[in-house]
Amino acid sequence: MQSKPEHAAQISPNGFLDLLIAVLCAFAFCNAAELARASDPQRSTDEAAIDAKKELCIALNRGQTATPLKEKFFEFYEGKRVVAQRLGPDTFRVGQVGLLSNVRVVQVQGPNKMLVSMGDGIFLLDNVATADVADGQNVSPQSWFYVRETETYETVAGGTKTVYVLTPCPNEKKPRVSPTRVYPWYDKKDEVVVTGEFKKLDGSKAIFSVNGQERAHALSKFTSGDRALLRLLGERYPPDPAQENRSEKPSPVLTLD
After folding, report:
1. Which of 102, 106, 141, 224 could form a disulfide linkage to 115, CB 3.0–4.6 angstroms apart?
2. CA-CA distance, 133 to 105, in Å (whole number)?
3. Do 181 and 210 form a contact (C-beta atoms < 8 A)?
4. Separation CA 201–CA 12 (nearest Å)
5. Distance (Å, whole) CA 186 – CA 177
6. Which CATH class is domain 182-255?
7. CATH code linked to domain 97-173
8. pLDDT per residue over 160-186, tens digit each?
């Protein structure tokens, strides 16, 4: 007969409860952090832009023309593309801005107002033309909306229901994002050579701005895909001589090989 170890670990009921609470708190914290990240259009756009750059460089490395991927990358680079949160009734909150798509019309309530549903959620769309819309129809606004307020209405059964009211987003509330210019650039071992903004080509070197300081790296250090993209950037955005001449004290260029 084997005896139990004298120091076998045991968790008391209180200890188990404390552990469970700690796990739930950690889960809630992670969810809150993810929600905060997703609701930051600049951060989400920058992350998507970096992914677009990776996709493009992989295609260029394979010798592909990759025209759609180039267009996508340059839209991020020039600030013409933004990643926006998709609105859904499970995450509505007053003041929220995002894209709305694929809703079902529950009831047209006027020339510019209708009750709609998405999944199990019901909400109101205001300031939206309803002349060509009928009850039961599926519509896809595919545009920016703003969660303006909540409104209580009377149901057919005689009760009341409070729902969110969404309206087309006014220009001043649409998210403003800056062009994504800072990217990681990789070597042939898939290690980051530099993370910075490309400035120009200088012979066989690429000049980057890193924390306000210019750094030069030999083009030969980069992957073939990154080299191809750097040359594309150099051709598409040649340095402006007039702007360079206006710089009274140009920062020194550090060559890092």
Report:
1. 106
2. 8
3. no
4. 66
5. 26
6. mainly beta
7. 2.40.50
8. 999 999 999 988 888 777 899 999 999
